[in-house]
Amino acid sequence: RLREAAGKDAMILELLFRGVDRRNVFKASIAINEILTDQYQMLEGIDFKLKVAKTASSVFVAFRSIEFAQIVEQTIKGVGLGTGHHLSMLECLQVHSAFDFSADAEDSLLSLRQDVQNLQRKQARTESERAVQAIAKGGGNKVPRGNADAVPPTTPTNACSRGWHNPRHGVVADPGHGVLGTKDSGP
């Protein structure tokens, strides 16, 4: 059972947005869904399943295959959608995989493992398989090759903190950060 759980955990990623409030984590989950759908050509419920953690600033993604999880882990920070909105959100992103999940992940792992099992029963889609393979080879024309470790962990002085203000964890996005903004930028 332990080996089976470890195999399923390899198909799960934790996308951690430390210090980001629940509302903006939910908005980030929508952006992650858009990235996986538009850039990786995946379909939710067939290729992946998203869950926003109840207690953490994390979005969990269960994938149908280890390959999908590995490629997304390696490339998601390199994703550019042309609008710049998602790029600011990705500055705050820390990607965690099996054996590196945050302590808060424990509450979600059982249902995520079940999601992995359900996704594995779905028929593979050639669109997502081809897109992921092209991205892995660096030949994807939508997603530039990235590195999940390229951005240092979130600290008060890195790029993430330039877009987020944390008055007692009531994080507010800078108006210029679009999709994660909580206030109108105004003139």
What brief labels describe this structure?
single chain, 187 residues, alpha+beta, four-stranded antiparallel sheet, 12% strand, disordered C terminus
Task: Give an overview in words.
By secondary structure, the chain is of the alpha+beta class. It is 39% helix and 12% strand. The strands form 2 sheets. The chain has a 4-stranded antiparallel beta sheet with strand order 2-3-1-4. It has a two-stranded antiparallel ribbon with strand order 5-6. Helix 3 (66-75) crosses helix 6. The longest helix has 17 residues, at 22-38.
Strand/helix succession: HEHEEHHEHHHEE
Question: Looking at the structure, what is the overall shape?
Answer: globular
Give the overall average pLDDT. 74
Reading side by side through the largest sheet, how are the strands ordered? 2-3-1-4
State the helical fraction: 25-40%
Provide the β-strand percentage band: 5-15%
In this structure, how is the largest beta sheet organized?
4 strands, antiparallel
State the end-to-end CA separation: 58 Å
User: Taking Cα atoms only, what radius of gyration do you get, to the nearest Å?
Assistant: 16 Å
Q: Which regions contain 5 or more consecutive residues with pLDDT less than 50?
A: 141-159, 161-187
Q: Tell me how many strands there are.
A: 6
Contiguous helical run count: 7
Structural class: alpha+beta
